[in-house]
Automatic annotation (TrEMBL):
Location, primary (coarse class): nucleus
Pfam family membership, one: Rttp106-like_middle
DNA-binding region positions on the chain: 545-613
Presence of keyword Nuclease: no
Annotated PANTHER family: FACT COMPLEX SUBUNIT SSRP1 (PTHR45849)
HMG box domain residues: 545-613
Stored InterPro entries: HMG_box_dom, HMG_box_dom_sf, PH-like_dom_sf, RTT106/SPT16-like_middle_dom, RTT106/SSRP1_HistChap/FACT, SSRP1-like_PH1, SSRP1/POB3, SSRP1/POB3_N
CDD domains membership: HMG-box_SSRP1-like, PH1_SSRP1-like, PH2_SSRP1-like
Protein name: FACT complex subunit SSRP1
Keywords (A to Z) from UniProt: Chromosome, DNA damage, DNA repair, DNA replication, DNA-binding, Nucleus, Transcription, Transcription regulation
Biased composition (Low complexity): 497-507, 647-663, 690-705
Length: 705
């Protein structure tokens, strides 16, 4: 016979609701793990007193009673599994698995029996229904009547709130059956009564959820939150987990208490109690117990007199009373050195803490996600900006959590953490429609190649190069666009004049001619200083040596065709991912070979750059001298052409083709060109040291015209 039995999709009945999970029976005992909360119920084999097999609504069920009176119910078994369970109980627990069916006669008159934590209403020998007394919140008595009220269950669609029992009077003297009934119920019921003094009191603590300032009174079995508006009594049995989380500013601490079932106020449910402390706040605490009681109850975990930081005292007391470990952040460190990541969830900004066994987000609304309930995670590009990304988590139940606006610098740290925890990663890439499942993954190494991160870096380099090229090109155009001796610049200036005239399309030619000299003077004034600026900003030279590639890029270029042939039809994204996997799996010796090639390429590049820089300086000097010489020649030729053009001004106005050497010139351009020629000749007189009387007469003639 097997030493263990495991059953999936088993339902545990807790306070009227059915919680699904997994049930495991072993030699040591019975273990049930709740799929929703992760809470584990462990029943030792030595504590089992009775096992009952019966037919229920969900097939067949198993009821286990312990020696201390607790009752555990598990439903969802098949009828064929009875023999297997019965043999297992006989062999390992030395118990007979009894078969008892519920009475379905529909009678409402019977006998009430109290057994441990259970109230059973029986008709004859068959039970009709059973009530766990721990579900009772209040018990009141009347004449021949007892009323039981129950804790409300938020998970159940329909909750039983009240049951009334009619107790007939008896002839026995000195015994009131109603009071006896009520005392049996109250002795086992979960009725919170603040009797006696509190062990200690923490006053005016800042609480984020529920919001406000509360006095926390610590009682032996429950926690009492007393505020100005609301009071909450929290039994320690409802505390699921404790968290102590440092704030990102390193000056505050979060203390988070996870509750199941939650505390409620009206229609609002609080699954988490979040307290915020300052690290600088200290306290001296004295417990309202003598030293012997403290030592006997807490076994050295607490002392009668304690002092220290306020958050340390609260967490220490809660840990001792609840008897649960305090979860703190693991070895994760973000880009800024903090143990959390700033992000947004829904409409609020908060902090996401990667833990050793899950994620927790504080504070509004607080969310705790365990690793064992995560189906996959996804790194998605931010919808509004490329400076951030989104981190999506989808659980096995289909619930999706999206933590947005995470800084791009946090990507590498978070990716390595998720990969090291062996969580499934599903990356959608750059486009919304692309969905790729990366279910197969390996451990995170220091030298691992991340295709997504590499792609983001390459895109950033391309954007920077394009931005530099565009700015360099635009600067070169503006510097070289104003050359009065070249025909291309005449066309550009004519285009500028047309653009200015188009704004006033309804005006006449005279208006345009009146406005044009002012516009032209403005253009010359703005562009002339640019001509004298040193030409330090130049475009990218196509003859310049190309930068060397990294070892990975050299290997990728050499292996790209082989990868395509091995995987026909592979997309670019899949090819990058596959290349990253191959590069990661490559041995250290082969990588060193490509590293040597990359180093050789780098040395060749440095050598070529030295030769290129020396040659480019010599070319620039020769080019400047030839350019100055060419300008002088063009100015001399233009001066002679202007002289001929002014003598035949009337003929040139009738036939513009004869007044121009090769290109068409409009009327506006001729008048403006003459004014610009005067300035150019003035420059010639300054540069060459010789004055020409002919151009000055031409200028006076053009002015009179």
């Amino acid at each position: 016979m097997a030493d263990t039995l495991e059953f999936n999709e088993i339902y545990q009945e807790v306070k009227g609701s059915m919680n699904d999970g997994r049930l495991r029976l072993s030699r040591q005992g019975v273990i049930f793990k709740n799929s929703k909360t992760g809470k584990v119920d462990n029943i030792q084999a030595s504590e089992l007193a009775e096992g009952v097999w019966r037919r229920v609504a969900l097939g067949h069920g198993l009821k286990l009673l312990t020696k201390n009176g607790h009752v555990y119910k598990y439903d969802g078994f098949r009828e064929s599994e009875f023999d297997k369970l019965s043999d297992f109980f006989k062999a390992h627990y030395c118990l007979e698995l009894a078969e008892k069916d519920l009475c379905v006669k529909g009678w409402n008159w019977g006998t009430v029996r109290f057994g441990g934590q259970l109230l059973s209403f029986d008709i004859g020998e068959q039970p009709v229904f059973e009530i766990p007394l721990s579900n009772v919140s209040q018990c009141t008595t009347g004449k021949n009547e007892v009323t039981l009220e129950f804790h409300q269950n938020d998970d159940a669609e329909v909750s039983l709130m009240e049951v009334r029992f009619y107790v007939p009077p008896t002839q026995e003297d000195g015994v009131d059956p109603v009071e006896a009934f009520a005392q049996n119920v109250l002795s086992k019921a979960d009725v919170i009564q603040a009797t006696g003094d509190a062990i200690c009191i923490f006053r005016e603590l800042q609480c984020l959820t529920p919001r406000g300032r509360y006095d926390i009174r610590i009682y032996p079995t429950f926690l009492h939150l007393h505020g100005k508006t609301f009071d909450y009594k929290i039994p320690y049995t409802t505390v699921l987990r404790l968290f102590l989380l440092p704030h990102k500013d390193q000056r505050q601490m979060f203390f988070v208490i996870s509750l199941d079932p939650p505390i409620k106020q009206g229609q609002t449910r609080y699954h988490f109690l979040i307290l915020l402390f300052s690290k600088d706040e200290d306290i001296s605490l004295t417990l309202n117990m003598n030293e012997e009681e403290v030592e006997k109850r807490f076994e050295g975990r607490l002392t009668k007199n304690m002092s220290g930081s306020l958050y340390e005292m609260v967490s220490r007391v809660m840990k001792a009373l609840v008897n649960r470990k305090i979860t703190v952040p693991g070895n994760f460190q973000g880009h800024s050195g903090a143990q959390c990541i700033t992000c947004s969830y829904k409409a609020s900004s908060g902090l996401l803490y990667p833990l050793e066994r899950g994620f927790i987000y504080v504070h509004k609304p607080p969310v705790h996600i365990r690793f064992d309930e995560i189906s996959f995670v996804n790194f998605a590009r931010g919808t509004t900006t490329t400076r951030s990304f989104d981190f999506e988590i989808e659980t096995k139940q289909g619930t999706q959590y999206t933590f947005s606006s995470i800084e791009r610098e946090e990507y590498g740290k978070l990716f390595d953490f998720v990969n090291a925890k062996k969580l499934n990663i599903k990356n959608r890439g750059l486009k919304e429609g692309m969905k790729q499942s990366y279910d197969e993954y390996a451990d995170s190494d220091e030298d691992q190649h991340d295709a997504y991160l590499e792609r983001m870096k390459e895109e950033g380099k391309i954007r920077e190069e394009n931005a530099n090229d565009s700015s360099d090109g635009s600067g070169e155009e503006t510097d070289s666009s104003f050359n009065p001796g070249e025909e291309d610049d005449d066309v550009a200036e004519e285009f500028d004049s047309n653009a200015s005239a188009s704004s006033s399309s309804g005006d006449g030619d005279s208006d345009r001619e009146d406005k044009k000299p002012a516009k032209k003077a403005k253009i010359v004034k703005d562009r002339k200083p640019r001509k004298k600026q040193p030409e330090s900003k130049k475009g990218k030279d196509p003859n310049a040596p190309k930068r060397p590639m990294s070892a990975y890029m050299l290997w990728l270029n050499a292996s790209r065709e082989k990868i395509k042939s091995d995987h026909p039809g592979i997309s670019i994204t899949d090819l990058s991912k596959k290349a990253g996997e191959l590069w990661k799996a490559m041995s250290k010796e082969k990588k060193e070979e490509w590293d040597r090639k990359a180093e050789d390429a780098r040395r060749d590049y440095e050598k070529a750059m030295k030769e290129y820089s020396v040659g480019s300086k010599a070319d620039s000097h020769r080019g400047e001298r030839s350019k100055k010489k060419k300008k002088k020649q063009e100015k001399q030729v233009k001066g002679k052409g202007d002289k001929k053009g002014t003598t035949s001004k009337s003929s040139s106005s009738k036939s513009p083709a004869k007044g121009m050497s090769d290109s068409f010139k409009s009327k506006e351009f001729v008048s403006s060109d003459e004014s610009s020629s005067a300035e150019s000749k003035k420059e010639d007189s300054e540069d060459e040291g010789a004055a020409s009387p002919a151009p000055s007469s031409e200028d006076s003639a053009s002015g009179s015209d």
